[in-house]
């Protein structure tokens, strides 16, 4: 497997490769991918900079037509691509189909935005003068993403960037490179000219080269807070625009007046869907004292019935593996920490029964008696591990939810309309769900977080276009005389 640069499939200049392995069965090697260096990034950035000179002049509705076709091709290739994605990152086929659906939705939204990209005109303070403002593309965009949404999350950045007239250098995660190559195939078939979209595979060296390259004008990153902050610091020095989507420690609060079945199904899906490997996953459950014991008993029952398995070969599997050995060790490390801090009431170990021993499976794990000072309350684990705490009141529940370095998603289950509106106002997060789990954001709504999660940008919806454009203000004076601006006329 190769890089995709200037419309060609090319090996890395380094000659080095890394292997892509199925996390559900580590005997299954999917392929060798190039381990790219600054030289490969420079080739991709050069191609993207060349392509930018003409792509930025293609009318936006025409760029949108290409993206609409890309959406159609994603739909046509959904079965095949969902199998590729399940094989390389482990979530079930239902979930990988959903991942692709998010890209389709984003493609169609971006396509129609090609006919909007609204500017704003205002009256001038002077006679016979007109004020216009409109969006300009930024140039070459460097996109660096994680493996948990191999198609959806890249699509949130790449497709809006393209419709605005930018060109792209994309470095996917080393754990989901095959899906990224299909992304390139689809954009090519849709009619994207060579060089407009480029893929360079690799690890930190490749990512750092994207951040450094002078032709790359904006960096869009999804991944860990540690890496994101380092990228932002460097982009600060380089005066480069950067948009970050980083960690989360999302809480679901359940009040005694809530629909308990709904809240139970919500946390099951939020905590253990995608094996807890979403930035939006529910990793803290805050239960009102009055319902705590009964709720926990039902939750243990329901979570212990979840079926672990290889999504490709077992159609009854509900929870896939965690992505790789490194993450497995990290999650098991947190489980050990949790066992010392709190009470493990379910799971708490790797799953190796039947044929799971060849994959990196972790049993759905639940801790109770979790206190706000505990590390499993405060730190992102990114696996199927749920920390349960108790609150004494609605206000206390919100206070606990907000006692967090991150601010991505949040959820409150209550039938009390007053409490629901207070939660919408007071929960410190970019996303709040009422009577729904912390996962499941829709492509046409702003997506992102506050505090340790983001740096003020929002992907999705209409807000993503602020990342990938700059505003131009234009003054047209048709008076035929030198008119001084009001401030220069005193
Ligand atoms: C992520 O975890 O990086 O809201 C994105 C959700 C999905 C996207 C998650 N639509 O859960």
What does the model show?
The structure is a single chain. With 490 residues, the chain is α/β, with parallel strands linked by helices. The protein has two domains: 265 residues, Aldehyde Dehydrogenase, Chain A, domain 1 (3-Layer(aba) Sandwich); 185 residues, Aldehyde Dehydrogenase, Chain A, domain 2 (3-Layer(aba) Sandwich), CATH 3.40.309. It contains 15 helices and 21 strands. The mean pLDDT is 98. The structure holds 2-aminohexanedioic acid. 2-aminohexanedioic acid (UN1) binds next to loops.
Write out the strand line-up for the largest beta sheet, numbering strands in chain order: 14-15-16-13-12-18-19
User: What is the rounded Rg?
Assistant: 24 Å
Tell me the fraction of residues in β-strands, as a range.
15-25%
State the fourth-level CATH superfamily of the largest domain: Aldehyde Dehydrogenase, Chain A, domain 1
Structural classification: alpha/beta
Based on CA inertia axes, which overall geometry fits? globular
Bound molecules: 2-aminohexanedioic acid
How far apart lie the N and C ends?
68 Å
Low-confidence stretches: none
**CATH third-level topology of the largest domain:** Aldehyde Dehydrogenase, Chain A, domain 1
Mean pLDDT: 98
Amount of helix: 25-40%
CATH class of the largest domain: Alpha Beta
């Amino acid at each position: 497997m190769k890089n995709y640069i200037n419309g060609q499939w090319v090996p890395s200049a380094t000659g080095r490769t890394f292997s892509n392995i199925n996390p559900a069965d580590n005997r299954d090697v999917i392929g060798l991918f190039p381990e790219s260096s600054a030289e490969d990034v420079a080739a991709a950035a050069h191609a993207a900079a060349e392509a930018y000179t003409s792509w930025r002049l293609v009318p936006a509705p025409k760029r949108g037509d290409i993206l609409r076709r890309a959406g159609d091709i994603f739909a046509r290739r959904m079965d095949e691509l969902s199998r590729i994605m399940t094989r390389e990152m482990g979530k079930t086929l239902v979930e990988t189909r959903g991942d692709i659906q998010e890209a389709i939705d984003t493609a169609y939204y971006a396509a129609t935005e090609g006919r909007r990209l609204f500017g704003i005109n205002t009256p001038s303070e002077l006679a016979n003068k007109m004020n216009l403002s409109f969006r300009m593309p930024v140039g070459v965009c460097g996109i660096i993403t994680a493996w948990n949404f191999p198609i959806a999350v890249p699509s949130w950045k790449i497709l809006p960037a393209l419709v605005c007239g930018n060109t792209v250098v994309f470095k996917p995660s080393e754990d989901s490179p095959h899906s990224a190559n299909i992304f390139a195939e689809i954009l090519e078939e849709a009619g994207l000219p060579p060089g407009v979209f480029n893929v360079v595979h690799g690890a930190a060296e490749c990512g750092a080269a994207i951040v450094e390259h002078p032709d790359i004008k904006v960096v869009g990153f999804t991944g860990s807070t540690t890496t994101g902050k380092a990228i932002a610091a460097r982009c600060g020095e380089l005066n480069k625009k950067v948009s970050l989507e980083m960690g989360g420690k999302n809480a679901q609060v359940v009040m005694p007046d809530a629909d308990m079945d709904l809240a139970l199904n919500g946390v099951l899906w939020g905590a253990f869907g995608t094996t807890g490997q979403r930035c939006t996953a529910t990793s803290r459950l805050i239960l009102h004292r009055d319902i705590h014991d009964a709720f926990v008993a039902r939750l243990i029952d329901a979570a212990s019935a979840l079926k672990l398995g290889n999504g490709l070969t077992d159609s009854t599997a509900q929870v896939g593996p965690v992505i790789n050995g490194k993450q497995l060790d990290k999650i098991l490390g947190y489980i050990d920490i949790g066992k010392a801090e709190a009470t493990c009431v379910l799971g708490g170990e790797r799953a190796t029964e039947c044929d799971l021993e060849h994959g990196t499976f972790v049993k759905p794990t639940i801790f109770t008696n979790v206190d706000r000072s505990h590390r499993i309350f405060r730190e992102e684990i990114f696996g199927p591990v749920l920390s349960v705490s108790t609150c004494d009141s609605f206000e206390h529940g919100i206070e606990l939810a907000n006692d967090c370095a991150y601010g991505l998603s949040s959820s409150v289950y209550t039938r009390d309309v007053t409490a629901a509106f207070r939660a919408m106002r007071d929960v410190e997060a970019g996303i709040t769900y009422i009577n729904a789990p912390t996962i499941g954001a829709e492509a046409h709504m702003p997506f992102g977080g506050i505090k340790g999660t983001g740096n003020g940008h929002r992907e999705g919806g209409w807000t993503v276009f602020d990342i990938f454009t700059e505003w131009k203000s234009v003054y047209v004076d048709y008076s035929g005389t030198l008119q001084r601006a009001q401030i220069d006329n005193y």
